Amino acid sequence: MTNARQPRQPLAVDVLVVGAGCAGVAAAVGAGEEGAATLLVDAAGCVGDTLAGHLLEHGGGFYTIDGQQVVAGFAQRLVGQMRQTGASPGHAHDDAGDTATRAPINPTALMLTEARCLHDAGVGLWLHAPLVAVKRHRNRIVYCAFSTPSGVRWVAPRMVIDTSGDAVAAHLALAGFQPDTATERQPASLQFTLSGVDFAALMHYVRGHAEEFRPGGHFPAAPEDHVDLWGFASLLRQGYQEGSLSLARNEMHIAGWAKRGELGVNVTRYDGQEPDGADHAGQAWLTLCRQIVEYDHWFRRCVPGCARAYVSAIGGQVDGRVSRRVLGRYTVTQHDVLHGVRFHDSIACGGFPIKSPFADQPDLAPADRPGQGFEVAYRSLLPVKPDNLLVAGRCLSSDHAANRALRVTATCLATGEAAGVAAALAVRQGCPPALIAVDQLRLRLRQRGAIVSLDGDAS
Fold first, then answer.
1. Model pTM score
2. Strands (DSSP E) along 46-167, which ranges?
3. Rounded CA gap, 434 and 325, in Å?
4. Residue 319's closest CA among 347, 280, 291?
5. C-alpha to C-alpha distance for 437 and 45, rounded to whole angstroms
6. pLDDT tens digits, 276-334
7. How far is Cα 332 from Cα 160, in angstroms, rounded to an integer?
C-alpha cells in the first residue's frame, strides 16, 4: 500500500509484466500470443536485462548432463531464430561439464531478436520506467505507478507478473519473502568483452597446457567459430603472485567468438558485507571496474594471442546473483532439484546443477553434481498474496540453494512463458491465477512446444 494519489485515467491492461529480462520477455510474449492485452515495463532503456545487459556469454540449462532436453517452447524458438541470423551457433557442447550443452549468444542480437518477438506478439512496451508504487485493495493489486520521463503514469492491470529479478512488484505489494542469512550471500561480478584477440595463438597455448583446464574441455586444432574455456590456472596464479592482479583466481571462464576476435570474460568477484545496502551496487561497480582494468593490462602482457586486445565493453549492471525470492504456495527446495522430485502441477523443467561461487576462494563455481533434471511446480509462481500476482525467473518461490539452479537462462525463459500463459488463462476465465485449471495450463504449454515434466508429454 502507498500514499500515492488515486490515478485519474490509468491505462487498463489484462496483463502487466514488470521486468524485461528473459523471464519477462517470455511472459509478455506468452500472454500476448494467448490473446491478453499485455504491457511490458522495464526501468532500463532496452530489453534483455541480465543475459544481454550483463554480457553473459551463453544461456544454460536447456539440456541435462545426459543429453535430455528439458526446456523448449518459446526458449527454443528464441535460440532457433538467433541461429538463423548468426547470433548464436545454437546448442553447443558444454565444456564445463555442468550440462550437455550451452547456447552461446551475441547480446546485441539477443535484444533485437527479443524485440521482434515482442512486436509480433502485439506487446506494449514502456522503457525508462521504474515501478515506484503499488496500490492494493484487499488482496488484489489494483494500480501500479511508474516513473517515466513524462511523469508518473498509472496502470490498472487485471494480472501482474513480476519478472524484475529483484521482486520489485512483489515487494511494493507487501508479498511475503523467503528468509536468507549472511552466510548464504553470493559474490557480485561484472562481465567484460575483449576485442582484438588472435585466436590461433590463444588456442595454440591452450592445446599445449591442457592440464590447466577443466577435464572434458574441447581444444580444436583450429579455432572454431565459438570457443568455451575454463582454466588458465598458472597464468592467473603468476599474475596474482607478482602483484599484477589483486584477485586470487585458479580459473576464469572465457567464451570466444573466433571470427569476431572477441572474448567474453567471467573472472571478477566482489563480496560486499551489506548486499541490501543503498551503496552496495555502486561500491561493487567501482571495485569490479578496478579489477577489469587490471585484467585488461594482464591479458595484453601475459596471455598468448592477447597482445593487441582491449576491453571493448563491460556489463551494464553488476550481477549480484542473489535477489529477493517470494514466499509462494510452494517453495522449490534443494532436495527437489537434486532428486528430480515430480509435481502434479509441474509447468517447467530445468537441467542446471546447483552451483556455489565464492568470493573468498580462487575457484569460480563448484557444482554439487552435474544437472540431472528437475521440475518446477506452478505453485512456486504464486505468492501467498496478493491474489492476482505471479512471479517468474529468479524471484520465484525457492530456497537459497535451489535458486542457484533455477536462476539460469533456460529455466527463467520456461517459467516466464508459463506465467504469461497462466495469466492469460486467468484473465479469460475471470479468476485468480491460483484457481485456473492446471491441467489446461499444462496442455496449452505443451501445445506451444514447452516441456512441462521430465516424463515428456505425460500429464
1. 0.89
2. 58-60, 92-93, 101-104, 124-126, 131-137, 140-148, 151-162
3. 18
4. 280
5. 37
6. 555 667 888 899 999 999 999 999 999 999 999 999 988 877 765 567 899 999 999 99
7. 21
